[in-house]
Write a structure and sequence with these properties.
Protein name: Thyroglobulin type-1 domain-containing protein
Strand content: 35-45%
Mean pLDDT: 86
Largest sheet: 5 strands, mixed, barrel
Organism: Methyloceanibacter methanicus
Shape: globular
Structural class: mainly beta
Keywords: Signal
Helix content: under 10%
Radius of gyration: 16 Å
Number of strands: 14
Low-confidence stretches: 1-26
Number of helices: 1
C-alpha cells in the first residue's frame, strides 16, 4: 500500500526533490533526481533464514524517479555504496490475481555491486494478498503470474503513482498497456 508523504519542495542529498499531494488527501509521492535502483523487472530470491525479506537483482540508474521518500543518492556504508529503490514509468505489465508472494522494493535499501556498478542487490519485503499485483513485462504467457518471485506492486498502486507523474513536468508516465486485460 502506498503511504502518504507531505507535499514539500526541497533539495535532498543527490538532487532536486518535488512532492505532490492531491486535494483529497490521497497518497502522495516524491519525485527527485539522483542515482537509484530500478527494480521493476527484478527477479528476487530468498535470503538465508528469512521468510519476510528477499534479495532482488536491480539495475542502477541516474535521473528522475519517484518514491514515497526523498532520494538519498549514494551513501557509503560498511556494506558498500547504498542507494534506494525507486519507481520509473513502465510501458506494459501483466496483471496477476493469485495468492503467490511478490517483493515490495519501493524505497528499500540496495547495495551497488562492486564488480558491476550497473547492478544492485536490494533487500525487499515479501508481500501477498493485497489485491491484483503486476509483473512488468513486454510479453505475456500462461506462466507469467505463476513462476518466479518478482519485484512488484499492486495494480492500484501503479495507477496511483502514474496519476501523480501526470502532474509533474520532469517525469511523464507512458500509456500503460495491460497485456492480459480482458477484451
Amino acid at each position: 500500500m502506498w503511504k502518504t508523504i507531505l507535499a514539500v519542495s526541497f533539495l535532498s542529498l543527490g538532487g532536486l526533490a518535488l512532492a505532490g499531494c492531491d486535494e483529497g488527501g490521497k497518497d502522495s509521492f516524491v519525485l527527485c533526481e539522483s542515482t537509484y535502483a530500478l527494480c521493476t523487472t527484478a527477479a528476487c530470491t530468498p535470503t538465508d533464514g528469512s521468510t519476510e525479506t528477499v534479495s532482488c537483482a536491480c539495475d542502477v540508474r541516474t535521473g528522475y524517479s519517484a518514491g514515497e521518500k526523498p532520494c538519498t543518492g549514494k551513501v557509503e556504508t560498511d556494506k558498500g555504496t547504498e542507494i534506494s529503490s525507486r519507481y520509473y514509468p513502465i510501458k506494459s505489465y501483466a496483471a496477476c490475481n493469485n495468492d503467490r508472494p511478490w517483493a515490495w522494493c519501493l524505497d528499500k535499501p540496495c547495495i551497488v555491486d562492486e564488480d558491476d556498478p550497473t547492478k544492485a542487490s536490494c533487500a525487499c519485503t515479501v508481500d501477498r494478498n493485497q489485491g491484483p499485483y503486476l509483473v512488468v513485462t513486454d510479453t505475456y504467457t500462461d506462466t507469467t503470474c505463476t513462476t518466479n518471485l518478482w519485484s512488484s506492486a499492486t495494480v492500484d498502486g501503479v495507477n496511483e503513482i502514474t496519476d501523480f507523474l501526470k502532474t509533474t513536468k520532469e517525469l511523464k508516465p507512458y500509456d500503460i498497456k495491460v497485456l492480459n486485460a480482458p477484451n
